Amino acid sequence: MAASLLSRAAAAAALRGAARPHLLARFPLPKETPLPPLLLLLLLLTATLPAVGRVGWAALAAGHAGGYGCRAPALAVGAFGIAVRCNATSSSSAVSESAGVHALPRTEPVVSAEWLHANLKDPDVKVLDASWYMPAEQRNPLQEYQVAHIPGALFFDVDGISDRTSSLPHMLPSEKAFSAAVSALGIYNKDGIVVYDGKGLFSAARVWWMFRVFGHDKVWVLDGGLPQWRTSGYDVESSASSDAILKASAAGEAIEKVYQGQSVGSFTFGAKLQPHLIWSLDQVKENIKTQAHQLIDARSKPRFDGAVPEPRKGIRSGHVPGSKCVPFPQVEILHFSIL
């Protein structure tokens, strides 16, 4: 076990060392500042899905990230990215791979495929397939889930579990709507949640953030996602159970009922919005004037420069004034793996 933990620590150190030059080239950090998995995970979530207006990208308040290896961070996230500066500590708990969800270290936002395999049958561990793809990729995440997914995993519809009153894609739903959808999936507040996606580490970061925004901190991302799970030699289910499909459908129906003002019954999961994790469009605009916080844009450099069109029609190219580019494809290396 000691060798395994040592190996994982060495791999993490190698990743952070390799990622550092890309970060420092765009966003100077103190030399003593390591790159915790949380930072890499946040860069992923800022680059994958759009969020504008009342529920811009996640913003961590000072001190909030202390449990993930950052002590007193000064950071904010606007509509297009995040800003991070932290005096970090690398304290992490050495926990047995089969210690269970209640013994999971809160110092890391990710778990390994080995840990999940050892704890897959724990009734308090819920696994979510949160695969999502850019429209141009023409991939159907629900169909792919039905073809192959981690045994027992539920499907989390990123498109469906969103604000039905907004014309913008993937806006956060209300507390009640999120509670209704997650309850329909059969998830309780006591559950530990492990999220993965089909690319390795892409849209899972968004769903991880959503649960944290709604007050659930017992949530982790599967390192390397489904590709790493399969590479590790673990089984996948090639057909979804009728119960899982019904739950995915029920989640969509529940959120629709909430927005239509219909009754949805009792909840097993109660969401509580954490406003300090969100910036509004007005806050982003004000920060452009004051420059009190540094915004980081985690999209690719060509998109940041406005050299290529945005994936969605009708969205202007370029970036928020004053933001800096830290493109996640250059930071998130080693085939979408953090540990």
UniProtKB/TrEMBL annotation:
Residues spanning the membrane: none
Signal peptide: none
InterPro entries: Rhodanese-like_dom, Rhodanese-like_dom_sf, Thiosulphate_STrfase_CS, TST/MPST-like
Cross-referenced CDD domains: TST_Repeat_1
Alphabetical keyword list: Pyruvate, Repeat, Transferase
Enzyme Commission numbers on file: 2.8.1.2
Keyword Transferase part of the UniProt annotation: yes
Pfam families: Rhodanese
Top-level division of the source organism's lineage: Eukaryota
Keyword Repressor: no
UniProt enzyme class: transferase
Segments forming domain Rhodanese: 121-238, 289-331
GO molecular function, one term: 3-mercaptopyruvate sulfurtransferase activity
Cellular component aspect of the GO annotation: mitochondrion
PANTHER family recorded: SULFURTRANSFERASE (PTHR11364:SF27), THIOSULFATE SULFERTANSFERASE (PTHR11364)
Name used for this protein in its record: 3-mercaptopyruvate sulfurtransferase
Taxonomic source organism: Dichanthelium oligosanthes
